[in-house]
Specification:
single chain, mainly alpha, two-stranded antiparallel sheet, 2 strands, 1% strand
Length: 377
């Protein structure tokens, strides 16, 4: 799931305009203009700032937490169910992969309904390339898969899918494309063998990563069949990540505008909007850590054999108080940074540093904001 923020104070997107006026009183909509809408937003923000802290808790925080829980807790429950099934069927890989696929498809339908078709089509294209390429072009499957994903994403966004529908599934498509490309490059290099249809589908649709991510490699996913089970460390990881996610959610939705209202000036407004965006990003990152751990993934073993739940998606401290821009780029999304460095930059390095950097930028832009914005740049 991805949030895209444009320059709303300069030009408001038509879809956002229609979505926001739906909740307004009917008598206000007669002759309602864009200028009226901006005034309405300003009045709303001033009113929001005039609320007491207890009123913000009652009128915004409570509702935000309730809506967030209704959307995300079923996903956590499914992840927990998959983890239990891996313990029951520890020696039955077919059973474990089947449960992972079934639960992932349930979540895809819960979040996207029939728009999940676009996800299914891309995954089918990816496996077709893997199977055909195994005999026809065994050392070029990664490049072919990357090209196919880029063409598919651009065609869907620009020509095929409605903007509202595509915006809904863009985040899941990004994670899926990263998985398709990474497993194809790993197969080219011989670090993984050609996965079976069951393994491949389970990797793509694993409930712990199919909605919010994060990206994990195919080899890391196979650890699901040897999950270390439930422990205090596992439980603390799930609770801590979920709690941090909800804290970031209410900060983005409720406290940003309450602490910094519109009349503070443009620089404070710019900081407020940037902070709200970062907090929404942290929500996705922390919750993806929770779903990853809840499904039995995101762990490693130390030298003395102890299990460590150490998967990290984002590190806000290094983003909010960075010592250099490199830390912001690295810790904004750790799995994404690793994926771009491993499968794009290093792969394109033989073409020269400039070409490698340009292709890395293009890949990141295409995955995050889509083809139409890439063309504008």
């Amino acid at each position: 799931m991805e949030w895209d923020y444009g320059d709303d104070d300069i030009l408001m997107d038509e879809m956002d305009y229609e979505d926001n006026i739906e909740g307004m009183p009917p008598e206000m909509l007669n002759g309602f203009t864009h200028e009226d809408y901006l005034n309405y937003l300003a009045d709303t923000e001033v009113y929001h700032h005039d609320l007491k802290f207890s009123e913000v808790l009652d009128q915004c925080v409570g509702g935000t937490l309730y809506d967030g829980a209704m959307l995300t807790l079923p996903l956590l429950c499914l992840c927990f169910t998959v983890n239990l099934c891996t313990l029951i069927g520890e020696d039955l890989e077919v059973f474990v992969h089947g449960i992972a696929i079934f639960s992932g498809l349930i979540c895809l339908f819960q979040f996207f309904h029939f728009n999940m078709t676009y996800v299914l089509v891309l995954s089918a294209i990816g496996y077709l390339i893997m199977v055909v390429g195994h005999s026809r072009f065994p050392h070029s499957r990664g490049v072919v898969s990357a090209t196919a994903c880029a063409v598919y994403l651009i065609l869907c966004e620009v020509f095929v899918v409605r903007a509202s529908d595509w915006h809904q599934v863009r985040g899941a498509q990004m994670i899926l494309a990263m998985k398709l490309i990474s497993v194809a490059f790993d197969a080219d290099q011989g670090t993984v063998k050609l996965p079976s249809l069951l393994e491949y589908t389970a990797y793509l649709y694993n409930v712990g990563t199919v909605i919010f991510g994060p990206w994990i490699s195919f080899r890391d996913y196979l650890n699901i069949c040897s999950s270390p089970g439930l422990s205090r460390g596992w439980l603390w990881t799930v609770i801590k990540s979920t709690g941090l996610a909800y804290c970031c959610l209410v900060t983005s939705a409720c406290f940003s505008q309450w602490l910094i209202p519109t009349y503070y000036g443009k620089w404070w407004i710019a900081y407020r909007d940037a902070q709200s965006f970062r907090m929404s990003h942290y929500f996705v990152c922390f919750f993806s850590q929770a779903t990853l751990a809840a499904s039995g993934l995101g762990w490693s073993k130390t030298a003395d054999g102890h299990v460590k739940w150490d998967a990290s998606v984002s590190r806000p401290y290094y983003i909010e108080l960075p010592r250099s821009l490199v830390e912001v780029v690295t810790y904004w999304n750790v799995p994404m940074h690793h994926w771009l460095k491993t499968y794009v930059f290093k792969t394109a390095r033989p073409l020269g540093n400039f070409a490698a950097v340009l292709l890395t930028y293009a890949a990141s832009s295409l995955l995050h904001v889509g083809g139409i914005y890439l063309f504008r740049v």
